[in-house]
Amino acid sequence: MTKENHKIDADDRKVFDVLNERKYTVDYFQREYSWEQKHIEQLVDDLTSTFLDAYSEGDQRAAVEHYTNYYLGPFVVSSKDGVKSIIDGQQRLTSLTLFLIFLNNLQKELGGKETIESLIFSEKYGQKSFNIQVEERRVCLEKLFLTGSYEVQPDDDESTRNMALRYADIAEAFPEGLKGKAFPYFLDWLKYNVVLVEITAYSDDNAYTIFESMNDRGLNLTATEMLKGYILSRFNEAKDRDKANRFWKESIQELHNYSKEEDQRFFQAWLRGRYADTIRQGKAGSSNEDFEKIGTKFHSWFRDNLERAELDADKPEDFRAFVHEEMKFYLRAYLDILKAQDQELPGWENVFYHRQWGIADSLSYPLMLSSLESADSPEVVRQKINEVARFLEAFAVRRAINFRKFGASSIRYTMYSLVKELRGKDLESLRTTLRKKLGEMEETWGGLAHFRLHGMNRRFVKFLLSRITGFVEQRSGASTSFTTYFISPGTKPYEVEHIWADKFAEHRDEFEQLHEFDNYRNRIGGLVLLPQGTNQSYGSMPYAEKMDHYLKENLLVKSLHPKCYENNPNFAGMAAELGLPFKAHLHFTKADIDDRQQLIQGICEVIWDGE
After folding, report:
1. Which of 46, 53, 79, 48 is nearest to 68 (CA)?
2. Distance between CA 82 and CA 286 in Å, rounded?
3. Using an 8 Å Cβ cutoff, are 86 and 93 in contact?
4. Burial readout 386-414 (b: 16 or more C-beta within 10 A, e: otherwise)
5. pLDDT per residue over 490-513, tens digit each?
6. Residue 75's beta-bridge partner residues?
7. Deepest in the core among 83, 157, 181, 227, taking most CB within 10 A?
8. What is the Cα–Cα distance from 530 to 557, expressed in whole angstroms?
């Protein structure tokens, strides 16, 4: 190996320098793009919060140069023959690319003229290509860049599916307050004040060694470790300090069984849910408050706000109780939430449902912990958490059927006000408050009358149909559940399918225009869940020929057929008890879709508004 091949460079780079007309490939040993909703929301929140903390309305554009910088982390590349391959950091750089595509599309909507396209793709010899080149992802990126949406296909790989979902999460998470005068300032800040460290190796061996070192030997103290250091320093007796340290280490290990960042999410949720009083106003130029400070440096916020937890820095007994009583109690509750998110457990179902369709972790976890008191029994803890999850799920579903956003940026102030309102409430008061909050929502179940499938909401439509189908079948005595239809473990996955075939000509008696037909065809009343591939065999048939096939499917589909109402006492009893307007449909016209919309609205009201 030559001396040049041994060389390693490390340079701080602005986002502009990293991506502007630069080309990267992704190395073969890199995993699929796997960021989850919580990761992308944290990135968007960190970037926008840091910018808003520095920005003041009326600043000159040139003032952005002196705003606070944001360090986005390192990435490692191998450079050979002029080609740079990403060894470590492709998750972050892919997410950054998705964010830039979103900002570019938003800029078109706002009528802006800033130049950021060169950070996304570049052109050579008349050929355009994305700056991060992975052939399997190209079609998805092109659709997102050109249209702002991508409909996931059955044969898409994991990276493509995740990119489409995370792009939608970015759209939800981006704050409304940045869509005005501050927007071009934010673009400047993102290009020139957000910094990464580019580590370049000139041989594969060196590049992989760096990759292993960065992933095996992180030396910087985390906020959790600094919080532990401060709390343990408050103990006078070595035996007390050792006992607290053992408990702390065991607790963090238990959290790390879920993810390496779970300890930080726990402390953020606990401190926000129980002690934080303030949150930054949504408008540009507002300063960060308790909520944001806990999100970035909860160890220093805790040290500066001991009185919120009724702690005296000079009383070791306060800190003993804080660790062995308060922390132990809220840690157990938090771990119960994490466990309940993984599967549909009896008594915890709403936590699981909310995990599949609900608000951001940064808001939901504090809300679920906010009403708990360390004296609560395990049963009261379960009921309180499940009640809050039920409210949050209902909130998210009602917003979604009315085509309203519920990303963290659009609801953060409302939800954090609720965190403070729920603190310390007993179970009955909690239920009363949450029912009152749902009753005050502007978005009603009446939105279902016009709710339909479109390019960006297929996952939600599947969620809604799975919840409705699972509910109807369980209340009718079947062993199937929401999980059967939404997760489909060990079976063919269920897909959203249209009752009407895509044949406008067959419906000209009711529609003059194609777009009117498409609108009705996509309405929730005209959609069902069927196993993958099933609809392909008879999906193009006229409705009258499909009906007999529907008798072999789930109850929500079967209920279209008259025979579903014969010798089926459990189903009939369920419909009568709940007052649901089930009926057979010998034909399927506009009026029939309207009837099914009303049925689905009735089921939703029972699921989420019933006692």
Report:
1. 53
2. 45
3. yes
4. bbbbbbbbbbbbbbbbbeeebbbbbbbee
5. 778 999 999 999 999 999 999 999
6. 198
7. 227
8. 9
